[in-house]
From TrEMBL:
Gene3D superfamilies for this protein: NAD(P)-binding Rossmann-like Domain
One Gene Ontology cellular component annotation held by this UniProt entry: cytosol
Keywords for this protein: Oxidoreductase
A Pfam family matched in the record: 2-Hacid_dh
GO MF, any single term: NAD binding
Entry annotated with the keyword Chloroplast: no
Record domain D-isomer specific 2-hydroxyacid dehydrogenase catalytic: where: 22-113
Protein name according to UniProt: HPPR reductase
Length: 159
């Protein structure tokens, strides 16, 4: 399938601080003709006809009424990340555009962080690290616990 036959997808940019990750862009290119916001703004009349979807990565590009009005063939907005609070769903649906989301994309990392926070809280690891770093003399007169640097085994931190 030639690139011209692929449906156009609008993205903010490829790479950089706010653009789609380059590995993800390579995957998208297999199924879509990627159009960056810069390309779109440089030639709105021609590009607006090609764009059938928008890929929102880290809440960008911003979806507003002006953008939606300029994309007559837009069918879907694909949101990558958790939640759609940054999207005005009523306004978007008034244009007949569907919104998709990836709710389970970060489920495992979120569970990992939650588990790590519970373990750190239960074992007072953050407080222990501060005390270990500053030393007991810093807390003169304050009741506290202190880890001996040799006492903590690597297996605890490797958990």
């Amino acid at each position: 399938m030639a690139e011209e036959e692929l449906p156009g997808v609008l993205i903010l940019d490829i790479g950089g601080t706010h653009g789609v990750l380059e590995d993800l862009a390579a995957l998208l290119k297999k199924h879509f003709h990627l159009i960056t916001m810069k390309e779109f703004l440089g030639n709105k009349e021609e590009m607006s006809k090609k764009i059938q979807s928008i890929f929102v990565f880290e809440c960008r590009p911003t979806i507003d009424r002006e953008l939606l009005e300029s994309l007559p063939n837009l069918k879907v907005i694909g949101n990558s990340g958790v939640g759609v609070d940054h999207l005005d769903l009523k306004m978007i649906s008034s244009f007949g555009v569907k919104v998709t989301n990836t709710p389970h994309a970060v489920a495992d990392p979120t569970a990992d962080i939650g588990m790590a926070l519970m373990l750190a809280s239960a074992r007072r690891l953050v407080e222990g690290k501060v005390l270990n770093f500053l030393g007991p003399s810093y807390f003169f007169g304050i009741l506290h616990f202190c880890f001996d640097r040799g006492y903590l085994s690597e297996s605890i931190f490797g958990m």
